[in-house]
Amino acid sequence: MIGRKNYYGSGSVVSAQLASRAWTITATAARAGLNPLTYLTAYLDESARAAGTAPTGHALTRFLPWAASTDDLATWAHDPRPTPEPQPTTSGGDARPAGDSHCGPAP
Q1: What is the DSSP secondary structure assignment for residue 107, as one 8-state letter?
Q2: What is the pLDDT of residues 59-80, one digit of tens each?
Q3: Which domain holds residue 75?
Q4: DSSP 29-87
């Protein structure tokens, strides 16, 4: 049972609570049109700048999707990973990799 394995965690209540919080945060970000990875990275960066403590007050309010600035929302909506370049396609001919001559000639 995949669901059971995912929900059970390490068997501790604290593990289940942490998982539910992480899923709630990422689902809220996704429903607000944000990229969850970008959103969480920004939050964790802010925590690191605050000496490893969670943001409070205005610094925390900044991360509420309904209270965030339009600039933050636009930044968090983008995927930070580079888009892979499209690979060239071959047209017809032999589909074997170059140098694979042990199979004999192409039919």
Answers
A1: -
A2: 899 999 999 999 999 999 987 6
A3: 33-79
A4: HHHTT--HHHHHHHHHHHHHHTTT----THHHHTTSTTTS-HHHHHHHTS--SPPPPPP
